[in-house]
Amino acid sequence: MDYKQALEYINGASWRGSRLGLERISELLARLGNPQSELKFVHVAGTNGKGSICAMLASVMRRAGFKTGLYTSPYLRRFNERMQINGKQIEDNTLAEIVTEIQRHADAMPEHPTEFEMMTAAALRWFADSGCDIVILEVGLGGRYDATNVIPCPECCVIANIGLDHTAILGGTLSEIAYEKAGIIKYGSAVVMYQQFGETMEVVRDVCREMSAELYVPDFDDISVEFDSIDGQVFSYRGASYAIPLLGEHQLHNAATVLEAVSVLRKLGWDIDDEAVESGLYSVAWPARFEVLHTDDPWFVLDGGHNPQCAAALRECLEHYFPDSKRVALVGVLKDKDYKSIAATLAPLFDACVCVTPPSERALPAEELAELFKDSCREVCVVDTVEDGVDLARDIAQEHDAMVCAFGSLYICGQIRSCFGLR
């Protein structure tokens, strides 16, 4: 099996959907020799910000000298982005070799594993074979029955900001969703929880009590902003100063959550010096999160936010970093997201809007999306491809001395970044 065949095999199982549950992944990993038992983990769940938290943690641990695996989803451009060691993606031939082995076992199972389960097994096998010291493991969906929850008790569980998303699967209330995400908490584990209030916090506290898990919560009131511009942010937290390239107040909150997780890891004996923390945060790269792709004629910003919470954060960033600018939107969304709330939050900020259909079977047609922007924007256009959307949005922005912000779905981000020569 070569690389192309390996991807076709994994993607060929996509019709099986999410199908939450641990039976299939447990059997598959047992057939592979249980590579997860050879590894140590930081397990990260949540609705928003878990990818940023994973990226920051991985950057810090790498700077501290540990061989660090990073497992995230989805990818922007190439499948290999999902699994990395010390910032390097898995090689094509290595992935093909591992998937060849997985196929032999998966095809022999009474119930065939899903796409995500096979991908998770491949990553765990690679991390174990490569001798990773620690793996920063992002939950795919929910937590309790997500394939990543097959791991043993992690060094630390991190629960990022929780909001309403995937409600058809995880439940229609914040309490139900919080309970599913808190399912990653194992007996006696250490838990870091993004500071929240009300029902989500109480649910997690209750689970921690039941599991004899110690809970640590960052104090966002202790964050003091020292510098904030489109070039990055400098802030102090618990008496120390840090710089991050990621923009927006929510990224300061994510960074404080990371710092609490680092504190927990230190208590467990991990040797992480201050320089590793500072340089790790400073050098973190996490594309498509209010990412500035172009700074002149016009400014072009890309954000992969795809739910109402993300839309609110994006609105804050636009109003903060581009308060007096005219704005052009480039938007593509999936039909199973709360796209009406996203449009209601963001449409009033834009003078013009270019709508595109993302390259996904779950995409909302651009024509339907355009209807949601017509009342707010003077000019609304529909285009056939993402590349055409980038060109048209930039043309409109140049004509009206405006900036461009692309948002709505991570499925359009890879193609947009490619238009600017970024991988």
| Main structural class | alpha/beta
Question: How many runs of DSSP E, i.e. beta strands?
Answer: 17
CATH topology of the largest domain: UDP-N-acetylmuramoyl-L-alanine:D-glutamate ligase
Largest sheet: 8 strands, mixed
Strands ordered across the widest β-sheet = 4-3-2-5-1-6-7-8
Give unreliable regions as ranges.
none
In quaternary terms, these chains amount to single chain
Helix content: 25-40%
The number of helical runs is: 15
Compute the average pLDDT. Answer: 94
Based on the structure given, which CATH architecture of the largest domain is correct? 3-Layer(aba) Sandwich
Radius of gyration: 21 Å
What gross morphology would you assign? globular
Word description of this protein:
It is a single chain. The chain has 423 residues and is of the alpha/beta class. It has two domains: 3-282, Mur-like, catalytic domain (UDP-N-acetylmuramoyl-L-alanine:D-glutamate ligase, 3-Layer(aba) Sandwich); 291-419, Mur ligase, C-terminal domain (Protein-Tyrosine Phosphatase, Chain A), CATH 3.90.190.20. It is 39% helix and 18% strand. Strands 4-3-2-5-1-6-7-8 form an eight-stranded mixed β-sheet, sandwiched between helices. The radius of gyration is 21 Å and the shape is globular. The protein starts with a helix and ends with a helix.
